[in-house]
Amino acid sequence: MHTKIPPNILCGAYVTGPYTLAGLLMGAEEAAITTIMNPEYLHQVCQITTIKILDYVSLMVAAGAEIICFLEPSSVMLGPDQFAEFSGKYIESICNKYKGTEISFVYHICGNTMHLIEKMAQSEVNACVLYFQTFSKLSIPAEFEMSDKSLEYYESLRFPYAPGIKPTW
User: Fold this and answer.
1) Is the pLDDT of residue 97 over 90?
2) Where are the alpha helices (DSSP H) in 39-78?
3) pTM of the predicted model over 0.85
4) Contact assessment for residue 6 and residue 153, using Cβ atoms and an 8 Å cutoff
5) How far apart are CA 77 and CA 79, in angstroms?
6) β-pair partners for 108
7) What is the DSSP annotation of 73-136?
8) Contact 68, 105 (CB under 8 A)
9) Is 137 left (phi over 0), alpha (psi -120 to 50) or beta?
10) Which residues pair with 104 in a beta bridge?
């Protein structure tokens, strides 16, 4: 993948997050109910989805991906503690596999995530911490590791190979 893209273009890829993938397998409503009624079972499903996601991320990185975006839209319906338990800790385990590398991670969750932003930041992703500061107008809590890249860096990224976008070079 990366060998066909000019070197000044960042290679990015996306993967469904562990809770959303569990929701796709079980049904979103069932996954939400299971967070309360049978959390042990949901952890088993999230462990399986995380293994598969990590396999996929490894393949994307081997193909040249430099930034991985976790799509986790179903998690917006969770409370902060449930989010940390059923999404954040699994995302963190994936991010930690690449700690000390040049691979960056982004959490993408549709909707109002202000109730989740602190837990998102604790999951070791690079970009959501920057958005937290931008939109909440609050300082980043001292216990959070800051990304080595600025918000402007992430905002400057262009993805000309995204579906429906005609390359401009």
Assistant:
1) yes
2) 39-62
3) no
4) no
5) 7
6) 71
7) GGGGGS-HHHHIIIIIHHHHHHHHHTTTSS-EEEEE--S--TTTHHHHHTTT-SSHHHHHHHHH
8) yes
9) left
10) 67
